[in-house]
TrEMBL record:
Residues 18-366 form the Acyltransferase domain. InterPro entries: Acyl_transf_3_dom, Glucan_succinyl_AcylTrfase. It holds the Pfam family Acyl_transf_3. This is Acyltransferase. It comes from the Bacteria. The chain crosses the membrane at residues 22-45, 57-79, 100-120, 153-170, 191-211, 223-242, 249-267, 287-305, 317-336, 348-369.
């Protein structure tokens, strides 16, 4: 058994944390609701309603700063647990490649083209889907104002794979934060304020220098926030004493999140839609987003540890269904919205159709993937367990 600890550290016994499983399930459930909300929100998305609803600004702005950082932190913890359970580093890398890159390839070839086709058709593309998929989808560069290629929502899988490989390499050469760093963070409120200040310093130093543009080699504003949160989860799995600091600091963390969230929401209300804030307002907004991402992660980790760390007969099934749901939900939302928005339905009816249709399609995809052996790896599922 690979211990993944440094000299002088006691080996960590890999134990499943049911609370973080439930947190992951809840976070991906919120992600589906968030993406459905983006259809109606004032911000531009893949596809938008003819009328936007400013009432969505407050809840979605309050959710936006921490929802993805939380997923990276939970994924970091899960990745470290998988590493500890693996027969060795090579086995771990093979497993991660199989479970992440196979669904990525499937998604890029089958799922993402649906969204990209809808985007170019909305801008004037006259060709059919077959022509688009066989020729135009594989292009490099713009088509009707849409840039190709594009990961769309699968960028999370790309980042997660890259962060895992970098963390593994750092662990291999002993450059990951170890027991000494964990002990330092355990003192006082350091686990709350020190990471926030460090990440804010990195984030604000490149704010007006590098564009906020998605891409594995371009999204440095995203990486300086997401990768430390991933490393936090990765370190927490190997240094469980950090749970004591989380339990001690969750209330101050929640207070920080409330103040930071107020700044974020106020900025979005002051500069709605595509309006660009001034430099001072943007500095305050980006600093608040960092503070909220870190502090909400601490508070929600405590919630998972204190109240949710218990098993249930539905946990395994729901946890397994998360990745297939994630893969399919985005193109399904875009497709249903594209097919129904022209009907000019009541927004609540439209929301109900989007939610029911997305859940139905994702459930069918998961059940099919679970039953069909060759579809399992494409949907991100592991080998079929013995009967």
């Amino acid at each position: 058994m690979l211990s993944s600890t440094h000299a002088g550290e006691a080996p960590v016994r890999p134990m499943r944390h049911y609370g973080l499983d439930w947190l992951r399930i809840a976070a991906f459930g919120l992600l589906i609701l968030y993406h459905i909300g983006m259809v109606f929100a004032p911000w531009h998305w893949v596809i938008d309603t003819q009328k936007s609803y400013p009432a969505l600004i407050v809840p979605m702005a309050a959710l936006s700063p921490w929802r993805l950082g939380l997923l990276f932190a939970v994924s970091g913890y899960a990745s470290r647990m998988l590493l500890l359970r693996s027969a060795g580093r090579r086995a771990f890398v093979r497993s991660r490649n199989w479970r992440l890159l196979m669904p990525l390839a499937f998604g890029m070839a089958v799922l993402v083209p649906v969204e990209m086709y809808i985007q170019v058709v909305e801008r004037g593309y006259q060709g059919g889907y077959w022509r688009f998929w066989t020729t135009d989808y594989w292009r490099q560069g713009p088509l009707f104002g849409v840039m190709f290629p594009s990961w769309e929502h699968l960028w999370f899988v790309v980042y997660l794979w890259a962060y895992t490989m970098v963390a593994l390499a750092l662990d291999r050469v002993g450059r990951l934060p170890g027991a000494r760093t964990a002990r330092w963070l355990l003192r006082g409120g350091r686990l709350l304020w020190a990471p926030i200040l460090a990440i804010e310093a990195m984030r604000l130093s490149i704010l007006f220098v590098l564009p906020e543009r998605q891409g594995l080699f371009t999204d440095w504003p995203g990486h300086v926030v997401y990768f430390p949160l991933f490393l936090f989860g990765f370190a927490l799995a190997a240094h469980p004493a950090l749970w004591d600091a989380i339990a001690r600091l969750w209330k101050p963390a929640l207070a920080v999140a409330a103040v930071a969230g107020t700044i974020v929401v106020a900025t979005e209300l002051r500069y709605p839609g595509e309006a660009v804030p001034g430099h001072a307002a943007m500095l305050a907004d980006r600093a608040a987003r960092v503070a909220m991402a870190w502090s909400m992660t601490l508070a929600l980790f405590h919630l998972a540890q204190r109240f949710w760390n218990r098993d249930h007969r539905w946990r395994r099934t729901l946890g397994e269904a998360v990745f297939p749901f994630y893969l399919l939900h985005h193109p399904v939302i875009v497709f249903i919205a594209w097919e129904t928005l022209g009907l000019r339905l009541d927004p609540w009816i439209e929301f109900a159709i989007l939610l029911a249709g997305t859940l139905a399609a994702c459930t069918a995809f998961y059940l099919a993937a679970r039953a069909v052996p060759w579809l399992r790896p494409l949907a991100g599922l592991g080998p079929r367990p013995p009967a």
